[in-house]
Amino acid sequence: MMQSFITKDGKRMRRGYTTGSCAAAAAKSAAMMLLEDRRLESVHLTTPGGAELDLPVTDIVMGDGFVSCGIVKDSGDDPDVTNGITVYARVEKTASPHEILIDGGEGVGRVTKPGLDQPVGNAAINSVPRRMMTQELLQVCEDCGYNGGLSVIISVPAGVEIAQKTFNPRLGIVGGISILGTTGIVEPMSDDAVVETIRTELSMRAAEGKKSVLLIIGNYGSDFIQDSLRIDPEIAVTTSNFIGDAFRLASEAGFADTLLIGHIGKTVKLAGGLFNTHSKWGDCRAEIFASHAGMCGASRETVARLMDSAMTDDMLSILDESGLREKVMASIMDKTDYLLQHRTLGAMNTAVVSFSKEYGILGMTAKAEDIMEKIRKEYS
């Protein structure tokens, strides 16, 4: 068990290590046992991020011309569906000098769509774990005076079932999980993992030649675009709270048009400059509604009621009573448009559509209808 900790939101949380580290450690230990003809109880691995790991080796099989073994994944305090699985490596000698061949076996996904870390047809073993394995195995060969090559098959028997709980099927990775990791270490509740998923989905659509992209914040957005806008939710990229990151990554991916459709409880925060809409970064919903209502002629009593409200539906109801909902929403969307254009520096056309379950579409920024129509045509 890894004994490295961080403090997050006042809690002491234990780090873990990635499937990529498991694969590299399994491959290294299998190669050492194959070339040295001895069993190992543990293996040492230095991760790309510089962390030093000593990991127990399990399920050792030393056969005729091959060695297979496993490393158990430890995700620390991160709620990772791969925690506790065993990542196996089977290593054999090949005749090609200094060549390391890496492929996936049972439970490791296969790439079927362009735009991912690996080309179509490859096993979903990302580039950093591949480099880790290649470097470790070449060093083992040098240490053992072996001049031939090695073939490595990474497998995760539990990966077939676990993959259904991940984004892999949606991303076009079939048959298992991905072997991932950039630093080799799992940071508990990592925001980076969410942002990386957004990056991957955007890269896939860009690789398909799409010029426009649709963003949604969560399940509310998925249901709304399907039921009210006749748009297939499968084409949308889910941003969660990371709206600013999503627009930035869409710009970096080269999209010409990016449209966000989201529930007013989240999108209203954009008018206050909050582009990460998690409540820990701020909750300015009442302040935004109240200030825009005041600018639109609301009475002091109405402004006070808005400030005392906890839910956006209540705020909308108060504005309805005052006959100001449409005017206030137009003001909020104008401010959202201004701040979004400022944030993206005019690198692409951007737009936002705000809705609620009760009221439907509440407001749109200037280019929303135009971009929505482009998305319908491009993804039809």
Give the N-to-C terminal Cα separation: 49 Å
Domain count: 2
What Rg do the Cα atoms give?
25 Å
Instruction: Find the count of extended strands (DSSP E, 2+ residues).
Output: 20
Structural commentary:
This protein has helices spanning 19-36, 127-143, 159-162, 168-171, 191-207, 219-227, 243-252, 264-267, 285-295, 300-308, 312-321, 325-344, 368-379, and strands spanning 5-8, 11-14, 16-17, 42-46, 52-56, 58-63, 66-72, 86-94, 100-104, 107-108, 110-111, 149-155, 173-174, 176-177, 185-186, 212-216, 237-238, 257-263, 349-356, 360-364. It has 380 residues and is α/β, with parallel strands linked by helices. It folds into 2 domains: 5-186, CbiD-like, CATH 3.30.2110.10; 191-379, no CATH class. The protein has a 5-stranded mixed sheet with strand order 6-7-8-12-9, covered by helices on one side. A 5-stranded mixed sheet has the order 17-16-18-19-20, sandwiched between helices. Strands 1-2 form a two-stranded antiparallel ribbon. α5 (191-207) packs parallel to α7. The protein is elongated, with a radius of gyration of 25 Å.
How is the secondary structure organized here?
Blueprint lengths: L4 E4 L2 E4 L1 E2 L1 H18 L5 E5 L5 E5 L1 E6 L2 E7 L13 E9 L5 E5 L2 E2 L1 E2 L15 H17 L5 E7 L3 H4 L5 H4 L1 E2 L1 E2 L7 E2 L4 H17 L4 E5 L2 H9 L9 E2 L4 H10 L4 E7 H4 L17 H11 L4 H9 L3 H10 L3 H20 L4 E8 L3 E5 L3 H12 L1
Parallel strand pairs: 9-12, 10-14, 16-17, 16-18, 18-19
Antiparallel strand pairs: 1-2, 3-15, 4-5, 6-7, 7-8, 8-12, 11-13, 19-20
